[in-house]
Amino acid sequence: xxxxxxxxxxxxxxxxxxxxxxxxxxxxxxxxxxxxxxxxxxxxxxxxxxxxxxxxxxxxxxxxxxxxxxxxxxxxxxxxxxxxxxxxxxxxxxxxxxxxxxxxxxxxxxxxxxxxxxxxxxxxxxxxxxxxxxxxxxxxxxxxxxxxxxxxxxxxxxxxxxxxxxxxxxxxxxxxxxxxxxxxxxxxxxxxxxxxxxxxxxxxxxxxxxxxxxxxxxxxxxxxxxxxxxxxxxxxxxxxxxxxxxxxxxxxxxxxxxxxxxxxxxxxxxxxxxxxxxxxxxxxxxxxxxxxxxxxxxxxxxxxxxxxxxxxxxxxxxxxxxxxxxxxxxxxxxxxxxxxxxxxxxxxxxxxxxxxxxxxxxxxxx
Length: 366
Hints:
The protein is α/β, with parallel strands linked by helices and 366 residues long. The protein contains 15 helices and 8 strands. It has helices at 2-20, 27-49, 55-78, 88-96, 126-137, 145-153, 165-168, 174-188, 190-207, 255-262, 270-276, 289-298, 315-319, 326-341, 345-361, and strands at residues 81-85, 102-106, 115-118, 141-144, 213-219, 225-231, 280-282, 311-313. A 4-stranded parallel sheet has the order 2-1-3-4, with helices on both faces. A two-stranded antiparallel sheet has the order 5-6. The chain has a two-stranded parallel ribbon with strand order 7-8. Strand 5 and strand 6 form a beta hairpin. Helix 1 (2-20) packs antiparallel against helix 2, helix 2 runs antiparallel to helix 3 (55-78) and helix 9 (190-207) runs antiparallel to helix 10 (255-262). It is globular and about 70 Å long.
């Protein structure tokens, strides 16, 4: 029992460390869920296999480790990160990000700095190369400004990308594994979401006339179109003229539809899209075909978001929220590309946890 508890504790610390690397993740969120998930899994194993264990010892071990982990994350979150920069332009770029726990120093104070941030896009003189070599020899981490901003904001600086960067954004082996575990999860939870779907369908039918389901052509993996399903949350024929974004207080939304949108219950039929392989549980939200074509022409690298399957929820949804114009679409793309570049099971798990918080708060609903 002690060995298994130690293993669960190490998994918790490791998971907390991985999640805390991503921005927009509080120490409390990382600590609570990183501790709860491994210990819940262990408790389930004890129950399923009938292994004996001391509940008081189990609980005491969990609480002690939780407090230690939470305190360490709290100290880390309040610690100022000292960043030495190589030019005033880099300093201004970092300050414009608005992060409160970053102290900007100039290169003369590099001995006090935790990391050195520079613009690696520009060519260097021989003296600059020698300076950076000396810093590296001293164990100082040297990082490009674009990468640094990505790590503190959770989005990719699209203006810093070159055409060749598209290759770096292509996900690798995980895309197949992701398809397997997401489909398995949807099938295992079938009784739960089908029960919710039946109740939701009944409310939609009683509230207003029209079909239960709303079908719309969206763009999926590698730019392939597909039919996406939702419970109808607007009055029938509300988009008979042309597609348009939903707005706050949109008059087209029914009374029940407003509740469905707030708690994302209108998205339940998209679980069928997940089973079919059109969508994933986590990924960039699929755009309407007309908007996808427009944005692809007007926004650089927009089609790069199609390197992964679109999802019911995603990094942009839980961090940025809903957008209803081109400037918002460009900002949202920056978060989508962060997800594509950091494509992993652990980021997916973090997004699921943040999605639960978003649903309960009704964040970004239109």
